[in-house]
Amino acid sequence: MTTTAPAPGKVLHTAYQKSVAAYWNSNRDDPVNLRLGDVDGLYHHHYGIGDYDPSVLEGPSDTRDDRIIKEMHRLETTQADLLLDHLGDISPGDRLLDAGSGRGGTSLMAYQRFGCQVNGVTISEYQVEFANNHAEQWGVADRVKFHFRNMLDTGFETGSCRAVWTNETTMYVNLFQLFAEFSRLLEYGGRYVCITGCYNDVTGGRSKAVSRIDEHYICNIHPRSEYFKALAANNLVPINVIDLTAGTIPYWELRARSSVATGIEDPFLTAYREGSFHYLLIAADRI
Ligand SMILES: C[S@@+](CC[C@H](N)C(=O)[O-])C[C@H]1O[C@@H](n2cnc3c(N)ncnc32)[C@H](O)[C@@H]1O
Question: pTM for this structure?
């Protein structure tokens, strides 16, 4: 793929982006992501969907936490599988972009499924190194590559991507700028898939629980309406919108009972249950 890699000093444009990058660079020993990833080598930085198996809470107490960790990892991998289900028909000759790629779990799953070139971008240099080392260990580094780049300004060639996804990354950026970049990158008829938390326009502005999530992750959760305005403004036409809110609550309930709970479980559960926050999948086609 023709690409103009921005000079490393030009990747972060604002003081805010520098603070987000610093957050993810310092997030190295986070057991909630590392212990789950250690289960099978797929390291995610997103949440899970689907019912958990209640039997993991029963049985010998000395192995209970291991059972919970494995089950939480199954649910987060199920979430990534659902995202990939919505990318449409992908051939080995296609190129995909994982925008805000974290430690690279979803990119590796995409390669396993489609066998095509996958590029991931993240503004954390630590994550780029972690994910590239991992792709090397999996023997797929020639097909799955991670780059220190800004998803608002990737430097990849216009029209070079068959599909682009964001898995819990859009709350860090202006959606109009982001979708303008994706619209540029996608070929005609290409697909964009997003999984995100967004606040509910119907219940009003940010609830206290949503504000606590923003503060915890230094992010800026958008209202649901903003996604559809920004998609429409950038020639991205929704084909599927799925409300995953009810489907993600069991993950949070299980996580609250695990040894890797961080304290943010309560605001998520409150926000979802009171209806001020949704967990959505949006798939849109580039016209
Ligand atoms: C919650 S993590 C999600 C990681 C990954 N998508 C996953 O599902 O495991 C958010 C990611 O967004 C990335 N990010 C935030 N702002 C970004 C930007 N402007 N450009 C590229 N990546 C960004 C962070 O570095 C981090 O990797």
Answer: 0.97
